[in-house]
Amino acid sequence: MMPEAIITWILYLNENGIKTEGIFRRSPASSKLREAKEEFDCEIGSMDCEELGGVHVIAVLLKMFFKELQIAIFDKNVYEVLKGQQKAKIAGVDILVWPASQYSPA
């Protein structure tokens, strides 16, 4: 089961950050990020994405969440396939082209 905050963050980024340049590369102020992470870790605060610091804070929190998982979401086989995929643009957003013939989940 995924924490409710993660779903909220994904929906927020989809609605507010999809065209934000450098969304997963730019780092917000470390104090703002630390404060937001503490609220998430302790399950306190409003979890209002704008109050937490907006698109860049939420993007980094989402990256941190997935990075800190004890079990990887994608195994090494999937990772290798993803690394080698071609990119395409849809509505100005880079996406990976994933031919079904290259990988079938077990």
Secondary-structure topology with pairs:
Blueprint: H1 4-16, H2 30-42, H3 49-52, H4 55-67, H5 76-83, E1 87-90, E2 93-96
Antiparallel strand pairs: 1-2
Helix pairs in contact: 1-4
Pfam families: RhoGAP
InterPro entries: Rho_GTPase_activation_prot, RhoGAP_dom
GO cellular component, one term: cytoplasm
Task: Describe what this molecule looks like in 3D.
With 106 residues, the chain is mainly alpha-helical. Strand 1 and strand 2 form a beta hairpin. It has helices spanning 4-16, 30-42, 49-52, 55-67, 76-83; strands at residues 87-90, 93-96. The chain has a two-stranded antiparallel ribbon with strand order 1-2.
DSSP helix count? Answer: 5
Tell me the Rg in angstroms: 16 Å
Q: Mind describing the biggest β-sheet?
A: 2 strands, antiparallel
Give the helix/strand class: mainly alpha
Q: What is the string of SSEs from the N terminus onward?
A: HHHHHEE
- Which runs of at least 5 residues are low in confidence (pLDDT < 50)? none
The portion of residues forming beta strands comes to: 5-15%
> How far is the first residue's CA from the last residue's CA?
20 Å
Mean pLDDT: 79
Domain module count: 2
Major β-sheet strand ordering: 1-2
- Characterize the overall form: globular
- Strand tally is 2
What share of the residues lie within helices? 40-55%
Organism: Zancudomyces culisetae (Gut fungus)
InterPro entries: Rho_GTPase_activation_prot (IPR008936), RhoGAP_dom (IPR000198)
GO molecular function, one term: GTPase activator activity
Protein name: Rho GTPase-activating protein gacY
